[in-house]
Amino acid sequence: MTVPTTGLLRVAIVEDQPLFRSMLEHTLSGTTGLQVVAAVGTVTEAARVLRPGSVDCVILDIDLPDGNGIALGVTLRRRTPTLGILLLSAHDAMDLLLDLPADVAAGWGYLSKTSSTSEEVLVNAVRAAAVGETVLDPALLARMTPRAGSDVARLTDRQYEVLRLLAAGLSNAGIGDRLGITEKSVQNHVNGMYATLGIDADPQRNPRVSAALKLLEETGPAT
């Protein structure tokens, strides 16, 4: 997936709570490079205004008054295969991403309304979804630990730290800044992580998406 060459990433918001929808619209409209082209509150309204090719990323509340945001996302993605989708929920339901149909599984992100999500995290998640990456809520990831015997449990502490930051939507440069290491060191950790997780270099699959989903699949709440 690629962001259009117009220079503006077009975003739509489907959120039934008027105040939260207004806050999202205000935040994103004030962000350089983003343009909010629609902000609606129901599946019916979204189906009416979101024409194929009209947006690059859509933010979807999972629980809508007349339907389900995930089902809407699947429908919209099949109409526009390059569409990025960012799910919002008041519940911890990240594992729903593991049940997406294979033909639409890339380019979905998940943020919790109840976590300490910042404007930076929100904007990064929108941008990442628009280019086909999978971004998971960093606050929720911080509460997860690898399952015993899993591939993720075999990662070094540094590789696991890099994986969580990658899954939260940070670039290699961003991960380096966060950890105080060079971008080259980050890439070395990423390569080692991919090898341990069995993620190949198939050009048809985004390895960062595969790594994020592997993290989601092989971790659980800390006890």
TrEMBL record:
UniProtKB keywords: DNA-binding, Phosphoprotein, Transcription, Transcription regulation
Q: Which residues form the Response regulatory domain?
A: 10-128
Which SMART domains has this protein been placed in?
A: HTH_LUXR (SM00421), REC (SM00448)
Q: Where is the HTH luxR-type domain?
A: 148-220
User: Is the Transcription regulation keyword given for this protein?
Assistant: yes
Q: Which domain of life is it from?
A: Bacteria
UniProt GO molecular function: DNA binding
Q: Which InterPro entries match?
A: CheY-like_superfamily (IPR011006), NreC/VraR/RcsB-like_REC (IPR058245), Sig_transdc_resp-reg_C-effctor (IPR016032), Sig_transdc_resp-reg_receiver (IPR001789), Tscrpt_reg_LuxR_C (IPR000792), WalR-like (IPR039420)
- Signal peptide from the UniProt entry: none
Q: Does the keyword Electron transport apply?
A: no
Q: Which SUPFAM superfamilies match?
A: C-terminal effector domain of the bipartite response regulators, CheY-like
For this protein, the record's Pfam families field holds: GerE, Response_reg
Q: Which residues carry this modification: 4-aspartylphosphate?
A: 61
Q: What is this protein called?
A: DNA-binding NarL/FixJ family response regulator
